[in-house]
Design goal:
Largest sheet: 7 strands, mixed
Strand content: 15-25%
Oligomer: single chain
Number of strands: 16
Shape: globular
Bound molecules: pyridoxal-5'-phosphate
Order of helices and strands: HEEEHHHEHEHHEHEEEHEEEHHHEEHEEH
Helix content: 25-40%
Length: 439
Amino acid sequence: MNPINTLLQHDIDHLLALDSAHVWHPYASMTTPPPVYPVISADGVYLQLADGTQLLDGMASWWCAIHGYNHPVLNQALNEQAAKMAHVMLGGITHPQAVALCKKLANITPAGLEKVFLCDSGSVAVEVAIKMAIQYWYSIGQPNKHRMLTLRSGYHGDTFAAMSVCDPVTGMHHMFQRVLPQQLFVPSPRSKFDQPLLEDDLLAMQQLLEQEQHSIAAVILEPIVQGAGGMKFYSADYLAGVRTLCDAYDVLLIADEIATGFGRSGKLFACEHAAISPDIMCVGKALTGGYMTLAATLTTERISDGICNGEAGVFMHGPTFMGNPLACAVANASIDLLLSQDWQANIIGMGQTLNDVLAPAREIPTVAEVRVLGGIGVVEMREPVDMAALQSNLIKRGIWVRPFGRLVYVMPPFIMTSTQLRELGEGVVAALRELAAQR
Ligand SMILES: *Cc1c(COP(=O)(O)O)cnc(C)c1O
């Protein structure tokens, strides 16, 4: 990276003053703005701060930047597409990048998911999935099947329907109670990843399905990895059991693979751990390798036929920027790039390194549990972390990790070398040890 590409201190101060006056950050106060760090460029696995500091990126910008930053192949895809056509409406028009992407997604996702609806972001993909499920049942003459059944500790996005299936406590449902659709919740699975199903773990879901099957349109869940709602990894047997229950009670299964999709859990899609196909699946986040906002909702011919043979005859949704060619082009390039490598061996190696390097955190008295799956490493603390203190400690070590609640976790770009992964993990452990000693 170019070391001359930095800002003077007084320009940095000006930037931060304008930021705190005008830029509302995610889940942040505008009244007492939290510290933010100005990043002016990013390359490979490093973010460069305005003062020239390089940070090793443990977050892949919220699961997205799987190939790292400033990747020549993705840059080229974007530039070539920009020179042809940056955008065109998808209503009544098609274009090669959208066609290629939908075909590719149908090919690589679990069997049966053949119909692809492109949309703008993960939350919208979840809205679309929920609308598909409801419109399907309505269209085939069962309008009472409109509720969602979901797991506690889930996270599905921040728009209204998506929020209605997020964990009610962390999603602060009480504030939105008057307008949120009331959904059905069962406890988060207790059966851990790589372990068999614990007796009774599916009982609550079975009982609710037994009682409420005539009002339930779909079960919606994050397969195997519950992400932003708790970073929990659960048993493939549980997921397989949910599929069986959905079939038995004639309820659809929506798999939200927005965080897990494209290799992160060690399979291309987390549903593969249980060898199941959902009726509807959402992808997003890593879809474009972190370049553009894009997501997709996939479904089966049974669902698309049900909807399109029904009252409306069409699916009632159509985003303005649907199938944006720049986003589709970079998604096509990102998926091809992923599949051109031995990505699975790489993720397994990442998991082994993360396991090794995070293991010593178990001896820190403030740490409750350490767990790793695929390219995800989680240190769960006993108490919520002091985010500002931990983050400034990590930044001094040249590391970018953003904890939330009791969770300190990493999900680095897939291109991170094992030496860099060690540096990342050791830095996290050292920071947690130092903060524990200061208590
Ligand atoms: C991030 C996420 C979403 C929401 O995606 P956005 O692009 O932020 O709207 C939905 N579901 C899961 C599992 C996610 O991790």
